[in-house]
Design goal:
Strands 1, 2, 3, 4, 5, 6 and 7 form a seven-stranded mixed beta sheet that branches. With about 140 residues, the protein is an alpha+beta fold. Strand 2 and strand 3 form a beta hairpin. It has helices spanning about 45-55, 120-139; strands at about 1-15, 15-20, 30, 35, 60-75, 75-85, 95-105. The longest helix is centred in the C-terminal third of the chain and has 21 residues, at about 120-139. It has one domain: Nucleoside Triphosphate Pyrophosphohydrolase.
Length: about 140
């Protein structure tokens, strides 16, 4: 089985987290935290920054490790690393997604979100109070 290293980012602005709906492939219609594959000789953090720039045309900041998980899709063993991040503005361009929603960790599963990402969502729920408190202190 082929192994892929993938990163995703839970962008938090105004006490909400952004999830985006995939617009193509076998994951079309599912919501996720945006991100993508880690390229050769690239750190996970650099990959996440690059992916957000490519997919949403924004610069993300304050990238902090949240959690990791393993998933199996389309013949791949996917090693997924999730980070929290912030940005100075909300995305308006979506190059890899059909729409985005601002929600809270408690309401992510109101949408067709990947069940395989449940561990990441649970980690976000656990970190949420501290994360919001940190952001209020910074801004």
């Amino acid at each position: 089985m082929n192994k892929l290293n993938v990163v995703c980012g839970a962008l938090v602005i105004d006490e909400k987290v952004m999830i985006a709906q995939r617009s193509y492939g076998s994951s079309k219609g599912f919501y996720e935290f945006p991100g993508g594959k880690v390229e050769k000789n690239e750190t996970k953090e650099k990959a996440l920054i690059r992916e957000w720039k490519e997919e949403c045309e924004i610069d993300i900041h304050n990238v902090q490790y949240l959690a990791s998980s393993i998933d199996y899709q389309d013949g791949y063993e996917i090693h997924l690393t999730c980070f929290t991040c912030t940005a100075s503005k909300k995305p308006v361009v979506l190059n890899a997604h059909s729409e985005y929603i601002w929600t809270t960790p408690n309401h992510i599963y109101d949408y067709n979100f990947f069940k395989s990402d449940k561990m990441l969502v649970e980690a976000l729920k656990e970190a949420w109070p501290c994360l919001i408190k940190q952001m209020k202190q910074k801004f």
